[in-house]
């Protein structure tokens, strides 16, 4: 290699190194300028933001310094900033689990829960006199007497004067009617082919629980309910809780 060629190589390397150093220096200068500008911008944004100004006023007010005037707009803006910081996903999401306002007076409401389903829920359908168990269905006429034919609980019975059937003593028999005396000494007339009703009452009740009808008389029972009185316009039952009066 000639001396001139070697000189040229050294010169080229020197220029290359010098050029690289200049670029590095320029890069460092530009980076420093960019960082300074970025810091200045951040500071300006913080200082000039509404939150900063409001916070500054509130801080001065709390320390007893000159009391600045907080406008309604500033207060709303500050509230929005606080809410945004506390509830970044929206306050509605956090209010879903709150059952009452934590800042209001707590008032507990009491609801009486039923202890259980009632055994019966009875209503009166109608009240009527009890039909007597005997019906005068016919007769047999003999030369010296008449024998009466009575229907008793679906069975046919023939009776004469002086006979007793179902607590009724036959006192007279004619073609039109049979007269009898009940166990209380009251006179009862059984007319031919007609139903006869006594003075005692029975009630037909409907149970809303079981959805069934019940025909009851005094001393009758519906489950644990006992019938203790029946009048033309009411029924009195005896339950575990006491007397229950049903009215029409």
Your description of this structure?
The protein folds into three domains: 3-86; 122-126 and 200-247, no CATH class; 133-195, SH3 type barrels (Roll). The chain is built from four helices and 14 strands. The chain is rod-shaped and about 175 Å long. The protein is α+β, with helices and mostly antiparallel strands and 248 residues long.
Structure in a nutshell:
With 248 residues, this protein is of the alpha+beta class. 32% of the residues lie in helices and 35% in strands.
Descriptive terms for the model:
35% strand; 3 domains; 14 strands; 248 residues; alpha+beta; 4-stranded antiparallel beta sheet; SH3 type barrels
Main sheet overview: 4 strands, antiparallel
Series of secondary-structure elements, N-terminal to C-terminal: HHHHEEEEEEEEEEEEEE
Q: Judging from the principal axes of the Cα atoms, what is the shape? A: rod-shaped
Distance between the terminal alpha carbons, to the nearest Å?
136 Å
Number of strands: 14
Structural class: alpha+beta
């Amino acid at each position: 290699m000639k001396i001139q060629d070697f000189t040229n190589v050294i010169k080229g390397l020197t220029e290359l190194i010098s050029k690289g150093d200049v670029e590095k220096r320029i890069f460092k200068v530009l980076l420093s300028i960019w960082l300074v500008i970025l810091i200045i911008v951040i500071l300006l944004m913080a200082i000039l933001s509404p939150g900063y100004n409001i916070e500054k006023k509130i801080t001065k007010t709390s320390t007893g310094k000159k009391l600045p005037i907080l406008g309604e707009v500033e207060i709303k803006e500050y509230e929005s900033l606080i809410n945004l910081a506390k509830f970044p996903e929206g306050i509605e999401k956090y209010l879903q689990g709150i059952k009452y306002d934590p800042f209001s007076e707590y008032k507990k409401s009491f609801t009486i829960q039923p202890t259980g389903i009632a055994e019966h829920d009875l209503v009166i359908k109608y009240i009527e006199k009890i039909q007597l168990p005997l019906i005068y269905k016919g007769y047999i006429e003999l030369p010296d007497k008449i024998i009466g034919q009575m229907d008793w609980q679906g069975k046919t019975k023939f009776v004469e004067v002086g006979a007793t059937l179902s607590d009724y003593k036959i006192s007279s028999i004619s073609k039109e009617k049979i007269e009898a005396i009940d166990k209380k000494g009251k006179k009862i007339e059984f007319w031919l082919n007609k139903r006869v009703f006594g003075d005692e009452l029975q009630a037909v009740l409907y149970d809303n629980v079981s959805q069934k009808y019940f025909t009851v008389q005094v001393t009758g029972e519906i489950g644990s309910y006992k019938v203790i009185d029946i009048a033309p316009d009411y029924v009195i039952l005896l339950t575990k809780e006491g007397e229950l009066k049903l009215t029409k």
